[in-house]
Specification:
By secondary structure, the protein is mainly α. Helix content is 66%, strand content 4%. It has 18 helices and 3 strands. A 3-stranded antiparallel beta sheet has the order 2-1-3. It is globular. It starts with a helix and ends in a 17-residue tail after the last helix.
Amino acid sequence: MKFIETLKNVWKIEELRNRIIVTVGLLLVYRFGAQVVLPGIDAAQLSNLQTETSEGLFGLLNAFTGGAFANASVFALGIMPYISASIVVQLMGIAIPYLQKLQKEGASGQKKITQITRWLTIAICLVQAPGYLASLGPVFGIPNSAFLLGQGGMFYVSSIVILVTGTIFAMWLGEKITDKGIGNGISLLIMVGIIATLPKAFLQNADSRMADGNNVMMILFEVVIWFAIILLSILLVMAVRKIAVQYARRTASGGYEKNVFGSRQYIPLKLNASGVMPIIFAQAIMFVPGLIGKSSFLEDTSAGLWLQTNFSDIFGFWYNLVFALLIIIFTYFYTAITVPTNKMADDLKRSGGFIPGIRPGSETSEYLDKIMSQITLPGSIFLALIAVFPAFIVKLMGVQQGWALFFGGTSLLIMVGVAIDTMQQVNSYLLNRHYDGLMKTGKNRKAVA
């Protein structure tokens, strides 16, 4: 009953209600577009494409696009080119002074960075779109009869334009959800796409279990493990190390000035400050060994065959061992460039705060950096274990690969992280209106209209 009452409170707040309606409406538009097949392709002859993208690395790509990749949809490239462009621009900001300058200019600089990211997204799409179209026949096995207008220049030009436009439109939808809706729009698009493939993957695995003579208890056992992994992922996302901070003198707000001597607060340092980015970086690198194995000078050698065999199976031992090591390395790397301990120390010093027993300035920066290094190690190992857990599920329990992808890795962490972020935003609206929040129970509060 408490949950139902909270939902009623959510609906009472007009601004929050309108934002939820806008968000749901735009997400439905995105899901509708994922079902619209490219002009000139017979949707009835895409069974080979859907089979080839049901598992493995292509299955992961298909999950990120919400099935659009397997449908040869106008949104087949999904929002991932924009994510890739954002990562590239963020990394380039470390080495390029111009981007560093823009990052320090506030809103105007961020606007220019956004424009650069958009243009880079188009460039990435112009590379990926022809590759996707060229792979439909020879790689994914779509018959020539499925191309109703042939595969000539007109088909390629029109389809490339549509695929690029589809990604740009998806990017626009994400930005509108962020501005007019609730939550991070781009992240919500990815999460909804992942969730869209979940029921099908679960039902296929359940049918396989029943066909093999397994009873319902085995399926329930898998669901219990899945919920346990979700809880562990929530712990990873929410875990923080609190660093006590003391202020010698501070002004408190509230319509009047008040000096507080000896006021204590804390700096929350996240156990996993890098989120899912290390997994995304590592996933991109894992394409390289397979490509090297297929190169002309290694293709027919024993080393080339070994690379092709072991790094094309995303549930294999060597793939997951290298994958886990890369995640740990990239977690340290990404944490180092995204957690500005020097800036934190300077801001703390300017505000009159200090960590007890640590001198303000460089010593505080070194202390924070040391703490971040210490908590990043268990965080990175935990992240790597969650990322490779689907391989354990496949090998030890015989779970189908499509369903196994939801037992860890990028898919699960994105779902958990975005869900928590969205709930926190809804929670803030409720608490501002003096309602009980979604994420913490408490005494009933008097509603304010």
